[in-house]
# Entry
Amino acid sequence: MTDYHVHIGQYEKAYYYADRVFSVLKKNGVDEVYVSSTTSCIFCKESTDARFSEHDKKNAPSASTLYAAISDEIKNAQLCAKEIGIKAHALYWVVPDFHFANCSLTLKKAMKDVPYDGFKIHPFVQRWNLEDEHMARLAEEIFDYAETNKKRIVIHTGDDDFCSPKLFEKYIASHTDVIVQLAHCRPLRQTVFMMEQYANVFCDSSMTNRETIAEIEKNGFRNRVLYGSDFPITHWREYKPDYDPTEKELSDFCLYYARSTACLDKTYAEFFSQTILRQGRLTAIKRSLGFLR
# Structure
């Protein structure tokens, strides 16, 4: 079973270890994952985002430091996956600030530094303003590279205009050989529209209810719906921990999640339970990003 939407890394005040995440998934029926690091959500000193205050910048890592840390984190995750026996496809979560703050960091270099199998774009976290020429150029580079090197692109979608499934439409339209995965299927109508227009557009089931998936299938796209759990962000949304969750806690959460979902939608719960909801154990490894705790 493949889970097309998995995360590791720092998320708010919690850190989700790769070995814990992979072990829970592996022991519960998943043997292949597409994974990106939520450590990429951390702002760096060079960020110009209006949500990032001058006070916060004082304690923030530099773009080069954060980029290096995430690269090491992903390499470590790939070693964990190999040890655990799960096939992990790492996705390069593109943080424009990394490239704008460091002219020597090209997209090609980033893809060479770590053996990534694709890209993750998160318009909510990074605010992809494609009217900005630098952002637009970087987006074009991503799609060009993905098409030339047969890499997939996962794009976060949401109900806000800047997270619309249609945000990158012009790039999707001009790069029809690139598999584009619209995470979360939001809004539904726009997701269906993109799938109707472009055969290279898929969606995933992460943070999505059964009614949404049923509607997409009703429109004839059953074979283009990918299973995605968004694990372990589902855990964070439930408990908002200010500590690093243990393997046991993550396993227990999966069982709780299955039961609570079953109360709402038996069909969806059964689909979920067949993939990541059986208990397991793991061998812990040392955390590599201590300064980001």
Summary: The chain is about 45% helix and 15% strand. The radius of gyration is 18 Å. The longest strand covers residues 2-11. Residues 262-293 have pLDDT under 50 and may be disordered.
